[in-house]
Design brief:
The protein has 240 residues and is mostly helical. It has 3 domains: 40 residues, no CATH class; 125 residues, no CATH class; 62 residues, no CATH class. Helix 2 packs across helix 7, helix 8 crosses helix 11 and helix 9 runs antiparallel to helix 10. It starts with 12 loop residues before the first helix and ends in a 5-residue tail after the last helix.
Length: 240
Amino acid sequence: MRYPTFRGLNLTFEIREGIIKHSREYDAEEFPELSEYLLDQRPPLEAQLIDLADEIAYNTADLDDGYEAHLLSLDQILKVVPVFARFYREAEATYPDAIEKLKFNEALRYVLDKLVTDLIEHTQSEISARAVGTLEDVRACPTRLVMLSSEVEEETRNLKQFLHENLYFSEALDPDKDDAERVVGELFKFWIEYPESLPGAYQKKAEIEPLPRVVCDYIAGMTDNYIYEQHLKYCGERVR
């Protein structure tokens, strides 16, 4: 609650259910506090779609970002990511005079289209095969209906593994990761020791919530530039 006249969003049951169940299933006996969310039933299709749509968007965007940042080379991608290599060869054949980046963009566009199209079509196939026509049918289904085909799921798994091994855990990023971890850790320690330095709203919040939780929430809402400004202000060191 942030304002006297606004006590928060009045979310529908289905939205709250989707927030709870979009990523996983819960056992009612293990999580009795979530029992109101029909844990023995599948969530609506919209909730089932969230993680897969995010995954497709992030995987393709991160592949592009890694290439743009020169953390991933074109040769490296072509050797390890077959689905991209296939479309890149098509782009080369269709646009032989285009520069490398434009052919890369074209191939990536086709990868995105393939993943999205497969998700739509395979989900439609599952719905038809199970004769699902109502929300009650969706909830009663023994498994989730929104899914990729086995072939495309394998291609997606390959792409994710490639990104984890060559981008997310790239040695080139280690200094920045270590730096960010140190900045966050030092600021967290500072505000735990000196909570009176927190903004007034967070000091008030700390009166009714655990201080570590409040500090975590405060840090989590910061932009990169702002957190470095706060580190310089309270820890006395310019990081970059």
